[in-house]
């Protein structure tokens, strides 16, 4: 069942709307209890589809074997943590988990063409999964998007539309395009989070069917917080874990609408003036599901912290000096963990898993520039 | 036990030589029978270390969770094949499997500093695993190596040495450096293939504990052929599979010393004048273990074929149009499969697995250039 948060109206799972008729966004709610069995997981495929009993789609999935990414111990300068290397999904970011489910569900529902807007990981992922699944897609990107990102999208056969103006102008152009084509936006879709959540199931399996005390994730639109909250809630409900990990989201100081709300005890993201940040993947000034994200963070007894630009760059180099090569956005978690320890949000002796979202191989030019600047 | 192919001299596993005193290369031979159990594999970690009973190293491994890469069905223009997306290893290439084992074994044997020479995937992998394992490393690269590759190596904290002249001059400089530091070369090491072989175990598991009729791999130095031959031989010996897949190696026409030898029925790679190829990762004019590679190909009833530059580029775009984004080197397998079908080396109705070695995200500039040229 899909439900609108704004007006409570419900729709069937096979409805072909990308949002409620009132304009609100839709969220998926399961109507039957889950069936989760460790044995069926262990004997399942070596991909996120080993958790298919918790993914609400039919048998014909659009998959490139996404998931089962490494969880490895490392000292990132804050004592030992567990790094979830989720940038090792097929197109170089965790978005593949969500896009796999989203494209699968849309195809089930009869969608054959769609539009997405993104300047980065989601665009590459959407273009690739549409290619894999035989869907037509048009990706709207800001005119200044790097050639490297454009070539990955175009190589997959997607139609690339470069939009003059700001990132917001790109979204507006995509919405305009959505009048005639299905708007497949991962942020609006109720299905995206149903794929993203599988990373949390994996952490549970990889930790020997247990969960960490803390989970620290980069926070932009908040799909990682929402995915983890959903997965851990399902595991709690099924009696398979005994506590909800504290979910901590990390934003860049230059774009921290959720952190500002968290600090002030507010229920909705704060309106901010966005400043450019090296963590471009989480530079979302108006997160669509911000209220829910704040509820999940508070509901898990977690927190939200913001980190400055220098500390992000230092975090990036700290990770690469451990052999872990991520894009700058992912590196917010390194100073994030430090801040969370300082503030007491993470206590000594607790276990902490840290999520790394995007590959450094996507950001070669930027990493080169940052290395030159800091020399 | 390590054994020299040239003079048959043997050494213990903990010997600290990188080659035989006679100058020949060393190969590892197991002295005890293997213990392979499907149940212990299934309950093992979600990485290549689920096959640790067949990897000859001790308990303290240098790992970033490499392995368990996707195996997915796709039509690459030649009917349905199984694509092994092994570029989804931690640093973006399958080399991580071998380098994980190699660095682990060298550290066990007391090595603390090493030298490698590479202009590409092996250098990035070695730098990253040395960083992870606390080993010092110096990577020799040709002076013309792209900034992007250099930044990945330097970010991991490796010392980068740019050598004037040709690729062969770089190898000579590394050998010269090896007088004072351990030469960790993955091509010379007897341990590299013991890691690489795990991809073939994975295919066996992913196909429901069975193996394909054919395996098609890019062929440069030949570690993929040797790794697969070793793994499948071990599985045959253990009675866990009933046939050896035909192993087919694909080279670029511009650098095909093994194909030329295969065609002429010779036992050693043919001396050739190398021409530049877009498949730079397999541009090896004098493969060190070439004789063994030819033995493995013939022993498996496989073959070796060469493909031209245009067909490699077409193969690259064919893969990307399926959502599979690899570096040009990997794309040789696409025209390779076509040729193998034409020649009858692959018959109708047979199952074929195809190996993809390196990430397209490492080759953004080159892919951009190829797209511009072909427009």
UniProtKB/TrEMBL annotation, chains A, B:
Q: Specify the protein name.
A: Threonine synthase
One annotated GO molecular function: threonine deaminase activity
Q: Tell me the classification of the organism that encodes this protein.
A: Bacteria, Thermotogati, Synergistota, Synergistia, Synergistales
Does this UniProt record's set of keywords contain Lyase? yes
Q: Which domain of life is it from?
A: Bacteria
Keywords of the record: Lyase, Pyridoxal phosphate
Domain Tryptophan synthase beta chain-like PALP as annotated: residue spans: 62-358
Pfam families xref list = PALP
Q: Which cofactor does it need?
A: pyridoxal 5'-phosphate
Lyase in keyword set: yes
- UniProt-listed GO biological process terms: isoleucine biosynthetic process; L-serine catabolic process; L-threonine catabolic process
């Amino acid at each position: 069942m899909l439900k609108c948060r704004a007006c409570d109206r419900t729709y069937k799972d096979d409805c072909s709307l990308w949002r409620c008729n009132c304009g609100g966004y839709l969220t998926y709610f399961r109507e039957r209890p889950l069936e989760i069995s460790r044995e069926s997981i262990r004997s399942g495929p070596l991909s996120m589809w080993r958790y298919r009993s918790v993914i609400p789609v039919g048998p014909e999935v659009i998959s490139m074997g996404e998931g089962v990414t490494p969880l490895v111990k490392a000292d990132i300068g804050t004592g030992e943590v567990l790094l979830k290397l989720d940038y090792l999904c097929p197109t170089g970011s965790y978005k593949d988990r969500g896009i796999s489910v989203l494209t699968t569900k849309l195809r089930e529902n009869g969608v054959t063409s769609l539009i997405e807007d993104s300047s980065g990981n989601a665009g590459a992922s959407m273009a690739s999964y549409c290619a894999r699944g035989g869907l037509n897609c048009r990706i709207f990107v800001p005119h200044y998007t790097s050639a490297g990102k454009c070539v990955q999208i175009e190589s997959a056969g997607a139609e690339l539309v470069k939009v003059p103006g700001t990132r917001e102008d790109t979204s507006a152009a995509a919405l305009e395009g959505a009048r005639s084509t299905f708007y497949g936006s991962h942020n609006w879709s109720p299905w995206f989070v149903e794929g993203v959540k599988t990373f949390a199931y994996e952490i549970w399996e990889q930790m020997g069917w247990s969960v960490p005390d803390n989970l620290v994730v980069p926070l932009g639109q908040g799909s990682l917080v929402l995915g983890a909250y959903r997965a851990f809630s399902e595991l709690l409900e099924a009696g398979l874990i005994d506590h909800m990990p504290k979910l901590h989201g990390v934003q860049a100081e230059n774009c921290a609408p959720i952190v500002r709300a968290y600090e002030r005890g507010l229920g909705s993201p704060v309106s901010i003036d966005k400043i450019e940040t090296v963590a471009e993947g989480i530079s979302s000034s108006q997160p669509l599901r911000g209220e829910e994200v704040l509820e999940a963070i508070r509901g898990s007894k977690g927190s939200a912290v913001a980190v400055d630009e220098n500390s992000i760059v230092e975090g990036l180099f700290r990770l690469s000096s451990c052999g872990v090569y991520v894009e700058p956005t992912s590196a917010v978690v390194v100073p994030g963990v430090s801040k969370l320890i300082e503030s007491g949000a993470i206590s000594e002796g607790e276990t902490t898993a840290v999520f790394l979202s995007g590959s450094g191989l996507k950001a070669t030019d930027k990493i080169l520039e940052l290395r030159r600047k800091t020399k």
